[in-house]
Design a protein that fits this description.
The complex is a heterodimer of chains A (113) and B (117). Chain A has 113 residues and is mostly beta strands. Chain A contains no helices and eleven strands. Chain B is mainly beta and 117 residues long. Chain B is built from no helices and twelve strands. In chain B, the strands form three sheets. In chain B, strands 2, 5, 6, 10, 11 and 12 form a six-stranded mixed sheet that branches. In chain B, strands 3-9-8-7 form a four-stranded antiparallel sheet, with no helix packed on it. A two-stranded antiparallel ribbon of chain B has the order 1-4. The chains are: A mainly beta (113), B mainly beta (117). The interface between A and B is medium-sized, with 25 and 28 residues.
Chain lengths: 113, 117
């Protein structure tokens, strides 16, 4: 049982480049999330999805886009990378229902230079 | 507004001594509370969760936490630290967003636990 799988694990981007962070889960969870983790700041929600075809902004959505064409996949797109987007990105999923716990991927460490 | 405050950014203990990681929360509703652990260069793993059943919650690896509503606290403890416990620990409050329909997770800033031999 793979759980939540993120690719790549590491990436270095130049300012202005674009990339897509991949996230897939095999637990048939309806809810999926993207977080970024900055040192000493905990995790901040970028985007979330409550099911295929439904996405919405979290706390820090600027500079990112998402799509959810299937239950399993929830890619995060950076269109014009900026140094402020240097961070560790975590994808998570959770079952539908009140106050269920989230399951996290291993993270993607992104550096924008 | 919901918030989570982890009172110590760093905690250092000797192996075999007790661990106490402190967490206070603010919530308008009856929340669910979680502790997650993150080992270096790894994802987040659930340690334990409180969902309004027993106030003393037991988790994995000998950790437990007590929900105290009067103090709005959810401190994490372990009687005897092990070297493998060295990691970052996050206290998280969860409330269902009635407008968005998703489970809103509010993270504390984290506490880094160091365990010395």
């Amino acid at each position: 049982n793979a759980g939540v799988t993120q690719t790549p694990k590491f990436r270095i981007l130049k300012i202005g480049q674009s990339m897509t962070l991949q996230c897939a889960q095999d637990m048939n969870h309806n809810y999926m999330y993207w977080y970024r983790q900055d040192p000493g700041m905990g995790l901040k929600l970028i985007y979330y999805s409550v099911g295929a075809g439904i996405t919405d902004k979290g706390e820090v959505p600027n500079g990112y886009n998402v799509s959810r064409s299937t239950t399993e996949d929830f890619p995060l797109r950076l269109e014009l990378a900026a140094p402020s987007q240097t961070s560790v990105y975590f994808c998570a999923s959770s079952p539908q229902g009140r106050n269920t716990e989230a399951f996290f991927g291993q993270g993607t460490r992104l550096t924008v230079v | 507004a919901q918030s989570v405050t982890q009172l110590d950014s760093h905690v250092s203990v000797s192996e075999g001594t007790p661990v106490l990681l402190r967490c206070n929360y603010s919530s308008s509703y009856s929340p669910s509370l979680f502790w997650y652990v993150q080992h270096p260069n790894k994802g987040l793993q659930l340690l334990l969760k409180y969902t309004s059943a027993a106030t003393l919650v037991k988790g994995i690896n000998g950790f437990e936490a007590e929900f105290k509503k009067s103090e709005t606290s959810f401190h994490l403890t372990k009687p005897s630290a092990h070297m493998s416990d060295a990691a970052e620990y996050f206290c998280v409050v969860s409330e269902q967003s009635w407008t968005g329909g998703y489970n809103k997770l509010i993270f504390g800033a984290g506490t880094r636990l160091a365990v010395h031999p």
